[in-house]
Amino acid sequence: MPLRPFVVLNLDEARFECTFGRGCDGICCHNGRPPVYPEERDRIDAVLPRILPLMRSSARKLVERDGYFSRRMKAGQPSLRVDAGWCVFFNHGCVLHKLGIEEGDPFRYKPCICSLFPLDRRADKSWYVRQRGYAGEIWDLPCLTPGGSTPQAAISLHDELALASRIHSGSG
Ligand code: SF4
Ligand code: SF4
């Protein structure tokens, strides 16, 4: 079957701005339990000795003792563990993101679902930008309720859109 063109359904009207460090403390990682696919797990495991020192001490102890997966499954995959209400990899920001930036690619170690946020895919594989009032969005994050001065998602999500396009090309 020919590959459907990469289309983001509401890209013309969607607006988004991540204000982490400028008003948002990273609440999307609060109780965050993203699923982790096997190839993502392999990438994390390969650099875990470098990740551990970047983590909160309680999260590091937990991960050293019990690993970084919770008992919960999401999308058929194991999901990350939470410590003290935050994803174990959160420490004033995502340590997987920070390590990736050090190596020139912020998406290198983060679970795909975190890297793509707020882009998501419907069951029919069409892409859209998560926004309050669109596609039944229920997450009440302020960044999903943009105002008129919020940048257009087509511009602010340049890197995420490029990643989604690559994933789309690979998976159909
Ligand atoms: S994506 Fe939204 S909730 Fe997450 S850090 Fe950015 S502004 Fe905060
Ligand atoms: S992996 Fe990183 S971006 Fe994803 S929930 Fe955990 S801290 Fe947040």
Salient structural properties:
32% helix; binds iron/sulfur cluster; two-stranded antiparallel sheet; globular; single chain
Question: How is this structure best summarized?
Answer:
The chain is an alpha+beta fold and 172 residues long. It is built from six helices and six strands; from the N terminus they run ααββββααββαα.
Description:
The chain has one domain. Strand 3 (82-83) and strand 4 (86-87) form a beta hairpin. The protein is of the alpha+beta class. Helices cover 32% and strands 12% of the residues. It has helices at residues 38-51, 57-66, 95-102, 112-116, 153-156, 158-171; strands at 69-74, 77-80, 82-83, 86-87, 119-121, 127-129. The radius of gyration is 16 Å and the shape is globular. 26% of the residues are buried. A two-stranded antiparallel sheet has the order 1-2. Strands 3-4 form a two-stranded antiparallel ribbon. Strands 5-6 form a two-stranded antiparallel sheet. Bound molecules: iron/sulfur cluster (2 copies).
Bound molecules: iron/sulfur cluster
Give the strand order, joined by hyphens, for the main sheet: 1-2
* Main sheet characteristics: 2 strands, antiparallel
Which band does the percent of strand residues land in?
A: 5-15%
Classify the secondary structure makeup into a structural class.
Answer: alpha+beta
SSE string = HHEEEEHHEEHH
